[in-house]
Specification:
By secondary structure, the chain is an alpha+beta fold. It has a single domain, classed as Aminohydrolase, N-terminal nucleophile (Ntn) domain (Glutamine Phosphoribosylpyrophosphate, subunit 1, domain 1), CATH 3.60.20. 24% of the residues lie in helices and 35% in strands.
Length: 272
């Protein structure tokens, strides 16, 4: 199965990490890595680094691991191809513009027939590649389009749409995903292929702590967090536990929304 990592913080943090070490924690020896990608959200835009190459052979990845700029939201994906060729167009995370800002999406699982969830006549968001994950992202953006048509929608309106979308995906297959619109990070936990060979929950794990605690908690997994501001709250989502620090598995079908900008944090505090 593919591996997901998502980090959200109220102020920018530098998250330098080893995708190779993360991959080794989540798969058996000898399993291939068919590509990797990292998205850093930056004031409505994104820095997106992707490569359809095994991480262990990538000089570009070594550079990215060591020189990532600070960001409030990071989404990373390690690919084990199940749908679509091993190519750049099928490499996660995927990014698109909606509402005058960039959105990103990465998925773990497989979703046969996901194209049937698209609204009739929807043509604005089309996949570049053949992966079921990118098709799912296009379906999501098609559903969110009306919310962003006349300005920035409320956090609760976004969360409600994400919950409906996640429920539809679960009817197709394992549907763990990370999605961000730059203000919030959304995480959906479902089922995944476990080391036992069974496909069952949890699909994602959640670690919520201060930045100082997070630095200690995830360093053994090859993740190095450094705050460029005062100590703050940090949320980390991962396909597999990154440490023995207090963390919780997302319940099957759970959707979590985490604010990651000053404006979003204030909005989240106001809304029930």
């Amino acid at each position: 199965m593919c591996e997901l990592l998502g980090i959200a913080a109220a102020a920018p943090v530098s998250a330098r990490f080893s995708l190779r070490r993360l991959a080794r924690r989540g798969r058996s020896a000898g399993e291939p890595i068919d590509g990797w990608g990292v998205v850093l959200h930056d004031d409505g835009d994104v820095r997106c680094y992707r490569e359809p190459e095994p991480a262990g052979k990538s000089a570009w990845l070594r550079f990215v691991e060591r020189h990532q700029p600070p960001a409030r939201i990071l989404i990373s994906h390690i690919r084990l191809a199940t749908a679509g060729t091993v190519s750049l167009r099928n490499t996660h995370p995927f990014v698109r513009e909606l509402g005058g800002r960039m959105h990103s999406f990465a998925h773990n699982g497989w979703l046969p027939g996901v194209e049937t969830l698209a609204s009739s006549g929807e043509t604005r968001f089309r996949p570049v590649g053949e992966s079921d994950s990118e098709r799912a992202f296009c379906v999501l953006l098609g559903r969110l389009d009306a919310l962003w048509l006349h300005g920035t929608p409320s956090a609760q309106a976004r969360l409600a749409e994400l919950r409906r979308f996640a429920a539809d995906l679960r009817g197709l297959g394992p549907a763990n995903f990370l999605y961000s619109d730059g203000a919030y990070l959304f995480a959906h936990g479902h089922r995944r292929h476990q080391r036992s060979g069974r496909i069952e929950p949890p699909g994602l794990w959640h670690l919520a702590c201060s930045c100082a605690d997070a630095r200690m908690a995830v360093r053994h997994a090859g993740v190095a967090l450094s705050a460029d501001a005062a100590p703050q709250h940090v949320d980390v989502f991962a396909s597999i536990p990154l440490s023995r620090a207090p963390r919780r598995p997302l319940a099957e079908s759970e959707v979590v929304m985490v604010p990651a900008t000053t404006e979003a944090c204030k909005s989240a505090a106001r809304e029930p």
